[in-house]
Amino acid sequence: MTDSLASPEELAAALDRTGYLADDGLATAGFLALRMGRPLFCEGEPGTGKTALALALATALDRPLVRLQCHEGIDAAQALYEWDFPRQLLHLRALEASGGIDVETAERSLYTERFLLARPLLQALISAPCVLLIDEIDRADDEFEAFLLQLLDEYAVTIPEYGEVRADQPPLVVLTSNRTREVHDALKRRCLYHWLEHPDLVREVTILRRRIPLIGEVLARQVAEAVQRLRQMDLLKPPGVAESLDWAKALMTLHRDELDAASAARTLGAVLKYSEDLDRVRAKLDALFA
């Protein structure tokens, strides 16, 4: 599939078939990352489709998706590999019971693929070609970022007890960040960069109608217009596309085919997730739906 994509437009069409609508800029960034073998670093507000892009790329390219969810305190062992100590211990006991094997041979037998537990980064190297999603890298710390540099440079890691593992074909790497902190320049330099914006009104209506086939045209447009207005307010967490979809589904579940102030008041919990935001919007509902 990779070789058959000759242009950003063809990648956009392939993504479109999965239900992901990429604009020209994003399609070009994805195409270049694919052809140049460079990671794609995607930043943007939560809910702008960064994670969904990696999922859509895996589907469009017919590649397995390997996902590493970053969090505070994540380290190389959690992301790369661990040894299966309980099985190693049972193996040692079996060797002792059988006898006739020297200590050096026994030790070597412990550090083989049989006992190696591949975490996402190692799994991406051994299952390439794949799409490797390193999600919310901004939640990890500086030390973990530094660890990623060599992997993104060489698509290889060295396991002291086992040896080098190198990808036969580099994975397509997508890194995402919600910009809760600045990621170091050293990591960004190794990547192509794209900033994802919230969709405009026309694109959001299209997304709603594509993802929720039964939604009416009027309701889809009203939800999209309302979400666009909410994003212009001073909210702690402006709604993303996921919240737009949830709001539309909530209204349809209540058998509403139009969005007005009354139905919005009943369903705001589907689109806003902070009490301060709920209070701010409820105070302006009549004006928002005038």
Task: Give a short account of the largest sheet.
Answer: 5 strands, parallel
Ends: how far apart?
Answer: 49 Å
What name goes with the CATH superfamily of the largest domain?
Answer: P-loop containing nucleotide triphosphate hydrolases
CATH architecture assignment of the largest domain: 3-Layer(aba) Sandwich
Main sheet: which strands, in order across?
Answer: 2-5-8-1-9
Measured on Cα atoms, how large is the radius of gyration? 24 Å
The total beta strand count reads: 9
Tally of individual domains: 3
Average per-residue pLDDT, rounded, comes to 91
Kindly provide the name of the CATH class of the largest domain. Answer: Alpha Beta
Which structural class best describes the helix and strand composition?
alpha/beta
Low-confidence stretches: none
N-to-C SSE string, H for helix and E for strand? HHEHEHEHHEHEHEEEHEHHHHHH
Amount of helix: 40-55%
The tally of helices reads 15
Give the percentage of residues in beta strands. 5-15%
User: What is the name of the CATH topology of the largest domain?
Assistant: Rossmann fold
What best-fitting shape do the alpha-carbon axes yield?
A: elongated
